[in-house]
Design goal:
The chain contains 19 helices and 24 strands. The protein is an alpha+beta fold. The strands form 6 sheets. Strands 1-2-3-4-11-10-9-8 form an 8-stranded antiparallel beta sheet. The protein has a 4-stranded mixed beta sheet with strand order 14-13-12-15, with helices on both faces. Strands 18-23-22-24 form a 4-stranded antiparallel beta sheet, sandwiched between helices. The longest helix has 39 residues. It is elongated. About 3% of the residues have low confidence.
Length: 625
C-alpha cells in the first residue's frame, strides 16, 4: 500500500443523515452543564406548577426536534452531491471539497466510527467540534481502515512546515501575530459585522423573529396555564418579558464568550500565534499557527469589509470569513492592491458598521425598572379589585340582594342546615346562644356565606363558640370559653401566642390535674427575627417540676406541637380526658377536652375528625431515658 492514497467519494443521503445525528449527539454531550441547568429548571416547574412544567417540556421537545430537522436539512443542502477528496500526507490531513483544507493530524482530537462513517474532528470551541467525514465504504477492508487511522493517530513529521499558502503563484501575502487579546478583538469585529447588518440582515432577522415567536408562545402558555385566562395586561406582560429575553440574547456583547473560548487550550493553541494569508488569482489561502490550512476560491467569496482593525473577506453564506489584520500591510500600495484584486474577482467592498451592544448594567436596570412597574401594576390591580368588591358588597346589601339564590345544597355532600347544627351541638353540651345563631344567620343572608356555614357544617359555629373574648383594643384576652377553644395558627404576637393558647386549653380542663399548672412562659432568645426562624422555648411549672418544650418558629405561624404539650402531662397522671383538635376548614384549630368515647361520638355526629396529639417535654424525655 502506498504511503499516500487519496479517497474520492460523494456522500449519499443515508450517510449524510447518519452524520447529522451523530454530530448533534457529540455537540449535546459537550453541553452537560447546560442540560443540567435546564433539567433543574424543568423539575422546579413540574413541582411548583405541574401544568406549566408539562407544557414547557412539550415545547422544548418540539423545538429540539425542529432544530434537529432544520440542522439536518441545512447540512444536507451544503454537502449533498459535493465531491470529497481526503488523504494524509506528511502528518497532515488534507481535504478538498470545493476548497482545500489542511489540518495537522496531531490536532485531530475526535475520532468516531459509526455504522457507515469515520468522523474525524477537532474543537473549534470547547463545545463545538468541526468534522471531516469519510464513508467506510471507501476502504477496501478493515485492514486499510486501520492503516488510515494509524496515520492519523501516529502522524509523520511534515516535510515542509513553512509558508505554503499561495506558494505556487504570485500574489499578496500577509503575516501577523495574534495573542488572546488581539484574537478576541478581531473575532468581536467579525461578529459585529454579521450582527450589525453590514452584509445583510435577512438571516439574523429570521432568527430574531423565530426566537421571538417561540418566547412569546412560551410566555403566553405559562400565563394561561397558571392563571386560567389571558387578559390584555398579562399578554402585554408576556410580550415585554419575551422582548427582554430576546434583546438579552441578540444584543449582548460577545466579548465575554470569546474570552471564555480562547482560554480553552485547543482553541488557544490553534488560534494564537502567527497567521499567514496569501491572496492569488485563484483565491485566498489561510495558514493558522498550528499548521492548519484552508483555501477559499474567489467564486465562494462575496464581500470585503473594512473595520478599524482589519479587513474581512466574507463568504457568500455570511458566516465564514478570512481575516487580514491591518498591521500586516506594508504600505498603502498593498491596501490598494487588495481592493483592486477583490474588485476584479467580483468581491464587493463594504464599509463596516459599528455595532452597539446592550451593556450588562443597562440590561439590569431595564429588568429592575420593568419589575418595579410590573409590581406596581399588580398591586394597583389588587387594590382596584378590592375596592370594586367592597362596592359590589355594599350595593348588594343596600339593594337587599339575597345571595342564597346562588347556593345549591346538592353541591355540598356534607350540607347540614344551621338549625340542625345548633341542635346537634346542643346534644353534646355545646349550647349555642340565640344571639350567636342570629348573627351567623345574618352572615348567611347578607353576605352569601351559606357555603361556608352550611356547606361545611359545624366549624363556623364552633369557631364562634370557642373564640376568646378580647378587650376593646383587641390586644388582651379577657375571657376564654369553657367547652370549646378556637385559635388561629397564624399568630398575632409570637412572643405571647403560646401562653395565650395554653391558657385557653387550661380553661377547658378546669377541675383536672392541670389546675396546678402555673408560671407559663416563653423564651424567645433563640429566635432569628430577620430570617423568621429559630426556636421558641415554652415552659410551665407543674407537679413541683419545671417543664420545657421547644417550638419551631416559621415567621408568625404557631407550631402545631402546642396541641400535644398538656396531653403529655395528662398521660403521666393517667387521665381519662385529653385534648382533641379538629381543623376549622381554614387555618385554625377547634380544641376540646374530652374522653376518647366522646370524641368518637362527636366525630360520627358532625363528620369532624378529632385527633389527640402527644408531645413530651424535655424533662419527661430525660426521665424516660
Amino acid at each position: 500500500m502506498t504511503n499516500t492514497k487519496k479517497y474520492e467519494y460523494i456522500l449519499d443521503r443515508t450517510e449524510i443523515m447518519e452524520f447529522c445525528f451523530h454530530a448533534i449527539w457529540e455537540s449535546a454531550k459537550r453541553r452537560k452543564w447546560m442540560w443540567f441547568r435546564l433539567l433543574l429548571i424543568l423539575l422546579l416547574e413540574l413541582v411548583l406548577l405541574p401544568r406549566v412544567g408539562v407544557w414547557i417540556v412539550v415545547l422544548i421537545a418540539g423545538v429540539l426536534l425542529a432544530s434537529v430537522a432544520v440542522n439536518c436539512i441545512n447540512v444536507r443542502k451544503s454537502i449533498a452531491g459535493q465531491p470529497w477528496t481526503v488523504w494524509v500526507e506528511s502528518g497532515t490531513l488534507k481535504v478538498d471539497r470545493g476548497g482545500s483544507s489542511e489540518v495537522p493530524c496531531k490536532n485531530i482530537q475526535l475520532i468516531r466510527t459509526t455504522r457507515r462513517l469515520l468522523m474525524l474532528g477537532y474543537l473549534q470551541t470547547a463545545q463545538r467540534p468541526a468534522w471531516f467525514i469519510v464513508p467506510l465504504r471507501v476502504f477496501s477492508d478493515r485492514q486499510e481502515q486501520e492503516w488510515f487511522l494509524d496515520r492519523i493517530r501516529d502522524p509523520q513529521p511534515a516535510e515542509d512546515s513553512g509558508v505554503r499558502a499561495g506558494s505556487a503563484e504570485e500574489g499578496l501575502r500577509f503575516a501577523y501575530t495574534l495573542d488572546e487579546v488581539r484574537w478576541v478583538r478581531l473575532q468581536r469585529g467579525a461578529l459585529g459585522i454579521m450582527t450589525s447588518g453590514t452584509i445583510g440582515m435577512r438571516e439574523r432577522i429570521r432568527l430574531v423573529l423565530i426566537w421571538s415567536f417561540f418566547a412569546v408562545l412560551v410566555m403566553f402558555s405559562c400565563i394561561y396555564l397558571a392563571a386560567g385566562r389571558l387578559s390584555w395586561q398579562s399578554a402585554l406582560f408576556g410580550v415585554c418579558v419575551a422582548a427582554l429575553i430576546t434583546a438579552r440574547i441578540f444584543l449582548r456583547d460577545p466579548e465575554r464568550a470569546l474570552k471564555s473560548q480562547i482560554r480553552t487550550s485547543a482553541v488557544r493553541d490553534r488560534e494564537c500565534g502567527v497567521w499567514q494569508i496569501a491572496l492569488s488569482e485563484t483565491g485566498a489561502s489561510v495558514m493558522l499557527p498550528d499548521g492548519s490550512r484552508s483555501d477559499h476560491g474567489w467564486e465562494t467569496l462575496a464581500h470585503l469589509v473594512e473595520t478599524e482593525d482589519a479587513f474581512y473577506i466574507f463568504h457568500r453564506d455570511g458566516r465564514r470569513y478570512v481575516t487580514i489584520a491591518k498591521e500586516s500591510f506594508q504600505d498603502w500600495n498593498q491596501v490598494s492592491a487588495l481592493h483592486e484584486l477583490c474588485a476584479r474577482k467580483g468581491v464587493t467592498y463594504v464599509r463596516g458598521r459599528k455595532m452597539h451592544y446592550l451593556p450588562g448594567w443597562a440590561f439590569l436596570m431595564i429588568v429592575v425598572l420593568f419589575a418595579v412597574l410590573s409590581m406596581t401594576c399588580l398591586f394597583l390591580g389588587i387594590f382596584r379589585d378590592h375596592v370594586q368588591e367592597m362596592q359590589d358588597q355594599r350595593q348588594s346589601v343596600s339593594q337587599g340582594i339575597d345571595r342564597q339564590e346562588a347556593f345549591d345544597p346538592a353541591d355540598y355532600p356534607d350540607y347540614v342546615p344551621l338549625d340542625e347544627q345548633v341542635e346537634v351541638l346542643g346534644s353534646f353540651g355545646l349550647q349555642v346562644p340565640e344571639e350567636t345563631v342570629e348573627s351567623v344567620r345574618g352572615f348567611m343572608t347578607e353576605y352569601g356565606m351559606r357555603a361556608s356555614i352550611e356547606g361545611f357544617p359545624y366549624t363556623w359555629l364552633l369557631t364562634e363558640l370557642g373564640m376568646p373574648r378580647y378587650g376593646e383594643d383587641w390586644t388582651v384576652i379577657e375571657e376564654y370559653a369553657k367547652n370549646v377553644f378556637w385559635f388561629d395558627f397564624e399568630g398575632v404576637d409570637i412572643s405571647t401566642d403560646y401562653v395565650d393558647i395554653l391558657n385557653g386549653m387550661l380553661a377547658l380542663s378546669q377541675g383536672s390535674c392541670l389546675d396546678t399548672v402555673t408560671d407559663i412562659s416563653e423564651d424567645i432568645s433563640e429566635v432569628n427575627w430577620e430570617e423568621g426562624n429559630g426556636t421558641v422555648v415554652v415552659g410551665l411549672e407543674w407537679g413541683g417540676q419545671r417543664h420545657h418544650w421547644e417550638m419551631q418558629m416559621q415567621y408568625d405561624w404557631i407550631d402545631s406541637d402546642v396541641l400535644g404539650m398538656l396531653n403529655a402531662l395528662l398521660t403521666q397522671e393517667g387521665s381519662e380526658k385529653f385534648f382533641y383538635a379538629a381543623g376549622d376548614n381554614g387555618q385554625g384549630a377547634v380544641v376540646f377536652f374530652c374522653t376518647a368515647e366522646w370524641a368518637e361520638d362527636f366525630g360520627e355526629a358532625t363528620g369532624l375528625d378529632l385527633v389527640s396529639y402527644m408531645v413530651w417535654s424535655e424533662e419527661q424525655r430525660q426521665q424516660a431515658q
